[in-house]
Amino acid sequence: MANGQNAIKHLPLLHNPLLNAIFNNPFHATSPTKHTIREIAERHSDFTILVPPSHVLRSGQDSSKRKLADLCYNDDEFLRSHVIISSAPFSVSTAPVSKAQLIIYNTMNGRQVLLRGGAILTGKNFKSSIRVKILSVAQFVSFCDYFPKGSRFLLLFIEDTLLHNLPQAQITNTHDRRLAGIDLNMNQKHDITFEDLLRNYPVLSKYMSHKFYTLFHHNNRKLDKLRTRQIMSPAEIASEFRTIESEAFAIIQDCVNSDSTDGDRVYTIFDSVAAKNPKVDMNQLIHEYVELNLYDKVWLQLIFQYSSGPEPSSGGSLGQAKVLTSELYKDLSCLSLNQLDIPVQDPWKLNVLQRRITEAITVLSKLLNSDVSKQRTKIAIIGEAISALTGKTEKSLQEDLVIDADTFIGLLIMVVVHSKINDLEAHLDYIRFFGGHGSGTELSHPHPQTNNQGYLNYVLSNFDAVIYLLSSTNATSEKSHVENMIAASALNYNFWYAIKTENISELTVVLEAVKREFGDNELPRSHFLKSKNINGESFLTSAIKTKNVNLFSILFEQTSSWISFEEIMFDRNTTSDQNLLMIALQEEASEIASVLIHFFQENATEEELVSYYNSCDKHGRTVGHYLSHDLVALKLVGSYINWDIKDNILQTPLAAVCRCYDRADYKELIKQVFAIVFEQNDRVLTFDNHIDKAGNSLLHVLAKGLLESELFSNSLALVDVNQMNNKQLTPMSLYVRYSRTENLEIILRQKSLVFAMEDPKLFYNVLDYYSFSASKLSTGSNGDFPFIQSLILQRFFSENFSAGLEKKIGFLNSRFDSNSNEWLINSIFTDRISELSFKSKYISIEKLYQFYHYQKRLPAIIFFPHPSVLLEYFMKGKSSVPMYLKFRMNRNLEYLNAFLASLNYLDEAIQNETFDAFSQFFLDHHDLKSDFFKWNRDIEHHNIECKLTHTQISEIVYFVEYSLDDVRKYLHIIKKLRKLTTVCGLKQCEQRNLFDRLLLTMTNIRNLEESASIEYRNVDRPYARIEPFLLWLEMCSEEILRNCGSLLNKVTRWRTSYSKIKELNNELHHIEQQIMVVSDSNKKLQQPEAIASPPLSRQNSLSVDLALTESEIPDDTSFFNFGLVDSKRARYKKLLLLKADGVKRLMDLNYEIKLEHEQLAASISQFISFRTGYLTLALKLLVNSNLNLLRYRVFELTKYRTEIWSCPLSI
Which DSSP helix (H) or strand (E) runs through 215? Predict the structure, then answer.
């Protein structure tokens, strides 16, 4: 390449070395890759090119330090490894779980690659297996002379080369995380059990399973005590368990100690397992195996002891006296934390304790699960519950919140009472007496906080203390603790029940009694007005949930002297972490919410209000997320809300308000919330923070009210109308899909909208979603479709055709029909644009080919190219699984629509005739073949005799040659223009990509990495918009040149035939003169007085009449001639027949030349006006595309500038 630098300076070099080596190589005929380039040129529609990034090729090297850019020109193997034969997949299959299509393709050098999940995986004949992500898909239109005119190639841009790829350390972070996750999952192993050993090692199963089966069988008499329901202490039950466990150990020991080959094999297996799993305790495995087989019997025996044990007052053992009964749980169901003498008083700390209690209850309730059948599992659950109670969940409270013994016992009472585990005593006994082998309480894998016997005993002793406090045997001088708790629970229940039933009279009596007793003094901490349920909800929360504003007002006003401002501020549901205002808004209690808002605004500071309104609940939602329920509240607190805070599903308050679709005043809600957002800010808003986890922007979320939101009219708003969500839907496509007609009408007016924007994965565009929406019309589920159809199709025609047309034809999308094995084109037709009457139908490409073929008979449009151009990329029987077929078909339809637009620039009469014929054809009322045969008969009927003179022929030749010269000059210009526009489109993409990569190296702009990785985007190539138009003009010009050449060829044949006829005529005249001379001499001899006959005259060369009769021609055949020499009479006849045949051919040529001349004259006249209008349309579309690109690019750069202001440069 170094030697050729001077030779390629004039060429428009492409930035990507691989593309430049294939499509812009000045040494294509002599380079090492010449055979590859020639093969690609000969079968250009069969290949797909894998294109590594330009920066990788320009900076990368192979193992021998050769630049990858040089390999593109000099290494044929490297080039062929990146060209896929996509017309014939090697293998097509479907993944069994994901149902994803797996397609294997061969490269040009016989290697195999697998296409799966948006990535390319190397396979057979590659030295190493790698996975490279497909970054983007593009179409490349060749502009060089050594490729067929207008040839198009599918490009797949990949993140790395398939050969000499980057080291693993340089692969993207995302790829690293993916691989790390796989390795982590592979290293994660589940806990080994003895049952696994028996299952995985047949030798162990063979020599032990039958013995264990006998040991655990119900006929084994040693299990009688465990099976029989009788009064036994837990120690006695454990003793029976140990007996069976000892026999299980004996079984294993006998197998190991056996003096046989089998014994050695068993010992070897155990030794191997111990070596591979050094942390596994084999004694514990055996214990748990016995525990698994005996648990049901042991557990039922323990339950029986407590169900039939003595009452605590009878003096029986504590282990068998059931204290925690369902009756006790019911009596204490309303017990509150403040009634257990907890020394903590601050409301925010009480919320923390309440939250821990709820978490511990959830954990301890796991003991009720049927799969908890191991002592180790029970210990882990209890340990986790204790950890939840003592854990420091809020760092800010780690130093302030100290859990002393009294507090811990109070918390544990709340957990035990509200978890309501009937057999908790049995669980505790099981933990005490059924530990591992050798000790009743050995632990193998305990909870991190229960990793020693002392801590476990401490935990169990705390549970014993709780059970003791809940029993009736701990009576003091007046009442036992449990009786005090039951009484407090009853007070709570009565008060809360009165609120729930909205019994205002009873509540008034209760509040008056409290007033009489305490006046305006502070209430005791254990008072029922300060009680909260297990979810941390106070009586105010219960009042809010009634939605009774009178009841709430009475409670709120009459308790104002007893309930402090801090208690109301920190009054939360500790399960959901919702404050009072959140609950009021969620319950849609608008009046109650207004009372709370006014209370806070009167008593709280600005900082406290902001903190309160923006505090998050369990789901990460603030008050702002609930404001969609109350327009009045929105106006009151909207200015305090941080609208950018995201909840756990990445939804901001603004997006949450926009999703409140069921409100009748939805538009007013949208208007108010956006007015507040714009008022809060004095800088440009990109609204990127409001994109949810599904990738939906605010434009996606809004169901209506787009005009009221001022997203398109406010100068502070910077929104992307073309942004796609995770399902690759633009707002416009989503509006079509969900029939949001109002928004659709507004967004179609936006100048920055890219109507032809495609999904980068499945390549669907808005026309596809329009077709999907049309399919719902037959079911009656899409009543808004006619209006959607009008909006979409009018925009479609304005994007692709000239304005002001009454009759329109367009092609929307295509699909492959496997039944007929041909392509079907979704065609749209209208002949009453004022009435918005559109007809849609799928028509096979074969029928369109026939229609075009028969319509091309019109003299004025014979300059249109041959119909075979329609079938070039829609081959009948073409496989329906080639790579990225949808993308190919979209590009083909762009060409078809560009060709179709040319009909609008013919004469009005021809347009009407063509559109009328298509209308009949569209409705299946048009018989193309019969019409074509009728036209042929008309031509034959008018095939009358026609004579052309030399002068007329010369005039025709002059006209054709002049036209030929004019069209050649025009064709030369069009070819150069098409090449230049193609190159300009490529250069536009390269310029955008390089600039984005420059920004990426200098800044930390979000989403810029994805944009910089895409080298070719359709939106960046407005010049590609006119390439189909220029190609059509080029083919039309070449068709005229072919027609001119055909006519000139016939003129040449006419002149040759005319010359031959003249020669034959001269020879005939010569023979006739000779005969006349001889005839006159004979007459003079016979009749000397006779007057000589005048000479024959043959003025008309085309005449075939006999100048002499046969009798007048002497027969000079000699006897000695032997037939070798024609007689004069025979020669005369022969010449006359030759002349007659020549005259017939000449007359046919006369007619053909005259007909073709007339058709050519008409077509050239039509072409002159056609090419001007058609090229004007192409230039208009080019200007519009450039304007769209500029608007789109201005938006991107403005957005980048806004983000740069908020992040430092990284230079």
Answer: helix 202-216
What is the pLDDT at residue 622? 95
d(CA 724, CA 732): 10
Residue 372 class from Cβ within 10 Å (0-12 exposed, 13-18 middle, 19+ buried)? middle
Q: Give the rounded distance of the alpha carbon of 45 from its chain centre.
A: 27
Choice among 134-138, 427-431, 1015-1019 with the minimum mean pLDDT: 1015-1019
Rounded average pLDDT over 946-955 = 84
Give dist(CA 552, CA 584) in Å, integer: 11
Reduced 3-state DSSP string for 18-34: HHHHHHCCCCCCCCCCH
Kindly write down the DSSP assignment for every residue of 1129-1187, as one continuous string. HHHHHHHHHHHHHHHHHHHHHHHHHHHHHHHHHHHHHHHHHHHHHHHHHHHHHHHHHHH
1042 or 773: which carries more pLDDT confidence?
Answer: 1042
130-141: average pLDDT: 92
Give the residue range(s) of CATH 3.30.1520 domains in the chain. 802-942
Q: CA–CA separation, 691 vs 699, rounded Å?
A: 10
Alpha-carbon distance values, 111 to 46, 80, 126 (Å)? 16, 9, 7
Residue 415's identity, in one-letter code, is: V
33 touches 67 (CB < 8 A): no
pLDDT at position 183: 32
* Residue 206, φ and ψ in degrees, nearest 5: -65, -40
Q: What is the pLDDT of residue 360?
A: 93
Predicted confidence at residue 392, as pLDDT, reads 52
Helix axes 549-558, 539-546, angle to 10 degrees: 160
At 942, the pLDDT band (50, 70, 90 cuts) reads low
State the chain's mean pLDDT as an integer.
83
Confidence (pLDDT) at 78: 93
Within 10 A of 371 (CB to CB), how many other CB atoms are there? Answer: 7
How far out from the chain centre does Cα 294 lie? 53
Q: Which long-range contacts (CB under 8 A, 24 or more apart) does 544-549 make?
A: 544/580, 544/583, 544/584, 544/587, 544/589, 544/592, 545/583, 545/587, 546/499, 546/500, 546/502, 547/587, 547/588, 547/589, 547/592, 548/502, 549/589, 549/591, 549/592, 549/595
- Residues 291, 378 contacting (CB under 8 angstroms): no
Residue for token digits 């466990």? 245
Q: Is the pLDDT of residue 1078 over 60?
A: no
pTM over 0.85: no
Q: Is residue 172 over pLDDT 90?
A: no
For 269, the token pair is 């297996």
Q: What is the dihedral of CA 50, 51, 53, 55, to 10 degrees?
A: 130
Q: Which residue has better confidence, 147 or 320?
A: 147
Tell me, what's the pLDDT at 169? 38
Architecture of the structural domain at 802-942: 2-Layer Sandwich (3.30)
Is the four-CA dihedral 588, 591, 593, 594 of positive or negative sign? positive
Q: Which residues contact 1088 (CB under 8 A, 6 or more apart)?
A: none
Which stretch of 115-129, 484-498, 557-571, 716-730 has the lowest confidence by average pLDDT? 115-129
Return the structure tokens found at 121: 């995986």
pLDDT classification of 632: cutoffs 50, 70, 90: very high
CB-CB contact of 116 with 102 (8 Å): yes
Q: Quote helix, strand, coil % in the chain, to nearest 5.
A: 60, 5, 35
**3-class state of residue 728 by DSSP:** coil
Structure tokens at 579: 């404050």
Q: Which amino acid is at 256?
A: V
Query: Hunting for tokens 């995380």 — which residue is that?
Result: 177
> Which of 816, 741, 798 minimizes the C-alpha distance to 773?
741
Higher pLDDT, 941 or 568: 568
